[in-house]
């Protein structure tokens, strides 16, 4: 089933994987491209039973027991036999409180991967006595967001079987990642690939990466250090976003993206800019396979302050449809062909819909415990993928509503700035579903209490005349951000 290169016995990587391999070589100790998920288990599972379940998962998914190495022909992947890598690690932490537990989790997520030796996967059981945390950490070169949920589905299925004394072996997938790599190569050599390349050149021509003003000058080299702000939207707002999307015949993600595009315009004055939206490129049987099946697509925004929020949302939906129809063309090749030589995006946004995962995960992602083999499993939100770009916004849709994870580069932004950005984004979302006919320039950036405090600081006739549309969005202008804050 595997596609082996006869020259050196290794498997070729996809274009996206090659990019991640290069980033790993540049910053091997960085956790920027680590994905992580965890559950709290009560009572503590038998480590032997859990280890058998982990082994069953790694045996099913060859990407989890692959190692990577550079060769004269480029980076290659080699699949190890089951049991050679990816075994369960047990950490004893008796009596640890929640703060200490969080530190232990963070340390496991941050620990670098030796992609050439241990591979891109590790499973850890942190046992503190009355309960335990099961943690799964992977490198992005081998997995994506859907892969993480597939891992958990398979892990819990195998655990339930092993706990009942049955064989936890899982049925092998009907495809493997080698088929995707081969299909990508076929695309790039075809006339269809050439047409997609032309589309992306036109999409980017004359535009630039959206970029919020920063609190500190941009360093010469990326820091690959980040943090996250995770909050749940009020249930009524989540429902109104879904209802607005249905009424406008667009996706909820288009509503969320349009609100972000409008906020970028208000913060920066930028009229024409690009935001990256990681898109799934899974097709057919690959929907059940673990691998790096994701590709950032660039969505161009052309926004003026006289445009209404509804108009911005509708244009975002149209551009999203065009971009996702051509999502299989690898982003690294788009960036390579860019005439500017600079990054094509500094802000990204994605949406994860947990109802696609089955197995009760839409409910679990909302914090409702699952009951399996006499154990309670409660999903834990674990920050990851931090520091990839200036700002990344992930919207998670679960059974009960929407939650937002706003990740940011800590070398560029203070926490206070990001919290203000988050609050203003929610304000734009709220206005979009309550008054879609409102012009972008008339959406208030501050609430009543904030506005009165700002006016009190101004303490003068000029301050007293400040309007919602003119209220500044940021408290500190970033040296080196390079973008004006004037009206558009």
Automatic annotation (TrEMBL):
Stretch list, region Disordered? 463-488
User: What Pfam families would the database entry show?
Assistant: Condensation (PF00668)
Which stretches are tagged as biased composition: Gly residues?
472-488
Top-level taxon of origin = Bacteria
Enumerate the spans annotated as Condensation domain: 11-454
Xref: InterPro entries: CAT-like_dom_sf (IPR023213), Condensation_dom (IPR001242)
Q: What is this protein called?
A: Condensation domain-containing protein
């Amino acid at each position: 089933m595997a596609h082996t290169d006869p020259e050196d016995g290794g498997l070729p990587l996809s274009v996206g994987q090659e990019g991640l391999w290069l980033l790993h070589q540049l910053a091997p100790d960085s956790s920027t491209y680590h994905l992580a998920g965890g559950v709290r288990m009560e009572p503590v599972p038998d480590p032997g039973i859990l280890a058998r379940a982990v082994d069953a998962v790694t045996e099913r998914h060859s990407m989890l027991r692959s190692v990577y190495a550079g060769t004269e022909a480029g980076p290659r992947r080699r699949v190890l036999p089951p049991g050679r890598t990816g075994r369960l690690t047990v950490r004893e932490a008796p009596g640890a409180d929640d703060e200490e537990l969080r530190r232990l989790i963070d340390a496991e997520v941050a620990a670098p991967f030796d992609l050439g030796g241990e591979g891109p996967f590790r499973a850890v059981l942190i046992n503190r006595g009355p309960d335990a945390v099961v943690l799964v950490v992977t490198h992005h070169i081998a997995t994506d967001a859907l892969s993480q949920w597939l891992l958990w589905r398979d892990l819990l299925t195998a655990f339930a079987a092993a706990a009942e004394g049955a064989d936890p072996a899982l049925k092998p997938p009907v495809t493997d990642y080698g088929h995707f790599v081969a299909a990508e190569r076929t695309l790039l050599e075809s006339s269809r690939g050439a047409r997609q390349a032309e589309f992306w050149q036109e999409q980017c021509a004359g535009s630039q990466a959206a970029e919020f003003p920063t609190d500190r000058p941009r360093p010469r080299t990326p820091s690959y250090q980040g943090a996250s702000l995770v909050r749940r939207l009020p249930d009524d707002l989540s429902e109104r976003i879904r209802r607005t999307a249905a009424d406008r015949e667009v996706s909820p993600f288009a509503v969320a993206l349009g609100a972000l595009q409008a906020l970028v315009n208000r913060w920066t004055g930028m009229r024409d800019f690009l935001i990256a939206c990681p898109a799934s490129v899974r097709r057919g049987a690959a929907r059940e396979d673990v691998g790096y099946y994701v590709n950032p697509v660039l969505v161009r925004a052309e926004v003026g302050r006289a445009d209404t929020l509804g108009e911005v949302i509708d244009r975002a939906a149209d551009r999203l449809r065009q971009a996702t129809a051509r999502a299989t063309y690898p982003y690294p090749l788009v960036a390579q062909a860019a005439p500017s030589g600079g990054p094509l995006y500094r802000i990204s946004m994605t949406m994860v819909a947990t109802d696609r995962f089955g197995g009760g995960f839409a409910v679990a992602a909302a914090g409702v415990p699952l009951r399996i083999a006499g154990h309670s499993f409660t999903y834990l939100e674990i920050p990851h993928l931090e520091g990839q770009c200036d700002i990344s916004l992930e919207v998670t849709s679960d059974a009960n509503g929407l939650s937002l994870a706003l990740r940011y580069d800590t070398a560029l932004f203070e926490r206070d700035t990001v919290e203000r950005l988050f609050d203003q984004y929610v304000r734009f979302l709220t206005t979009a579903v309550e008054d879609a006919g409102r012009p972008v320039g008339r959406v208030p950036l501050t609430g009543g209490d904030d506005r009165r405090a700002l006016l009190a600081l101004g303490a003068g006739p000029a301050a007293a005349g400040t309007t919602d549309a003119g209220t500044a969005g940021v408290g500190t202008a970033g040296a080196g951000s390079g973008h004006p804050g004037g009206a558009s």
